[in-house]
């Protein structure tokens, strides 16, 4: 029996909805085909955005979408992507497959996509190969409400109203594809470029994201903060609102042998989970450095690229990064999102890479067909954590795995209370062999613990709560489970799907349930 203790009265912080954010790059079939098919497509669309994909994404409540890259961002010249489509410049996407980029998806199309998704915008600017003027004019084009050369150009292109830019990234991976800079050089460039990311509105400020470290480059974090945070500036806390972190889970030993997305054994499964769990250490250690500069935690660690990265599906363009998605990916997502929830005092945003058809996608498409991946299901099961209050919880766990150096905790959890008073518990069982009995002890509900209440397990939550934390009367459960390699295909799109979970029993002290091996459970009570 593993004990899960929840103290619903002890709120530890707000889980920013942006932790459940996504990333879409001009890469492979993410934007083109995946999200945008064009107004003249046979595939059902609204203003070029495919309806089936938008509907599936709305179900998981996408809070924020990062665009246009990635490495593509530091080669992107935004003026190529505005105006009449026929006149837009065609270019080579040098990073990703050397294909022709016709720029038919540009700034206007991106904001139309955000409008349809109902999400916030996160635009990534070009510091690596663009000028200060170009970045400054893009911000003016997007946000200035008045008479100015760029606002006039936007109006001429059919959009008189400015858009809102919630987040603006000043470069991407500038330690690598974004210019191969060292931290001191980048930090000074950042200070210069961000100066011209103007706030044209009285009622909001653009959140500026500074390029942060690659994985465990703690020196980058320190040096960039020394130059960009500690010296103050336009914002009370210096020149930035967030520092990015990129970390991908690659099961293989090197980038030439990353491993297959679908053909893997139990050892590789545990290695993958072990490597995904490394995110906890990265967040903790980069966070500790940030604490030295920013003890009040005013700026966020924005994990704006994370997820699994495998060898591409056989027969597909190596530059398109197209990979399948299995229950293993679902466990990676569940574990990672629990980590982000538990570190919500510092992690203010995260963007899984990438939204459709690239790396750890939530959606895969093939022509007019679409499947929701097991990772989609986890985002769907965790959606109630968005903007909820993280509460104190602990779950007894033990290392599991086939090799000592690649072990991982068998169980992972996070618990939050949503605005409507419903308590949400998400638990992942990473073990491939063992189911576990979990005894849940909850303190802090308005009328005591869940024990002794009469309503049956499986009753709908959210009905019996009169203010505060409610009375824990109803319990709603759902589960995602399967064999580690189970996946959804275009032939069998529902092979892995969320099912009702009615295995919760009431006990003297709270609740208990058995979580099967290789599964994710969400309880709402
Ligand atoms: O997500 C794919 C690529 O990974 C991005 O373009 C880049 O930022 C990272 O290296």
How would you describe the overall organization of this protein?
The protein is globular. The two termini are 21 Å apart. The chain is built from 9 helices and 26 strands. Strand 11 (242-249), helix 7 and strand 12 form a beta-alpha-beta unit. The protein has helices spanning 51-59, 107-117, 132-143, 149-156, 183-195, 218-228, 266-293, 327-342, 374-381, and strands at 2-14, 21-23, 45-46, 49-50, 64-67, 91-93, 99-101, 120-125, 167-170, 207-210, 242-249, 300-308, 347-353, 363-366, 369-372, 389-395, 399-400, 408-409, 411-417, 423-429, 436-443, 476-481, 499-500, 505-506, 511-515, 519-524. It has 525 residues and is α/β, with parallel strands linked by helices. Mean pLDDT is 93; it is low at 446-472. The structure holds alpha-L-arabinofuranose. Residues 25, 69-71, 172-173, 305, 353-354, 359 line the site of alpha-L-arabinofuranose. Alpha-L-arabinofuranose (AHR) binds at residues 25, 69-71, 172-173, 305, 353-354, 359.
In short:
With 525 residues, the protein is an alpha/beta fold. The chain has helices at 51-59, 107-117, 132-143, 149-156, 183-195, 218-228, 266-293, 327-342, 374-381, and strands spanning 2-14, 21-23, 45-46, 49-50, 64-67, 91-93, 99-101, 120-125, 167-170, 207-210, 242-249, 300-308, 347-353, 363-366, 369-372, 389-395, 399-400, 408-409, 411-417, 423-429, 436-443, 476-481, 499-500, 505-506, 511-515, 519-524. The protein contains nine helices and 26 strands.
